[in-house]
Amino acid sequence: xxxxxIFGSHTVEMCPLNNKTSAMTMVQMxxxxxxxxxxxxxxxxxxxxxxxxxxxxxxxxxxxDAESAHQLEKFLIDIGSAKFNSSKIVPLINFEEIVRKGAxxxxx
Length: 108
Ligand SMILES: [Zn+2]
Prior knowledge:
Elements: E1 3-9, H1 20-32, H2 34-38, E2 45-54, E3 59-66, H3 69-78, E4 86-92, H4 95-107
Antiparallel strand pairs: 1-3, 1-4, 2-3
The structure holds zinc ion.
């Protein structure tokens, strides 16, 4: 299990709320990623844990359990996200893990 955050953004002009082409791409993205919600996908995605969007900031974060950032990059291109979103893929750890590391530092 490796957690990644996909931090994305787009311009107001390219927002699916304002742009029919982006809206169509977004609906297709939902269809193309349905299998990755709960099942292992062809892109090494074990599970899409959550997808959250800030409509007025035109930013989003998706949290995924996946094998590699390179496969996620290909995933974002193939599903159409890269047509109107800039994205940054960041390795994540959960809060309990960072607390454990912090507690270990206190023991030194
Ligand atoms: Zn938007």
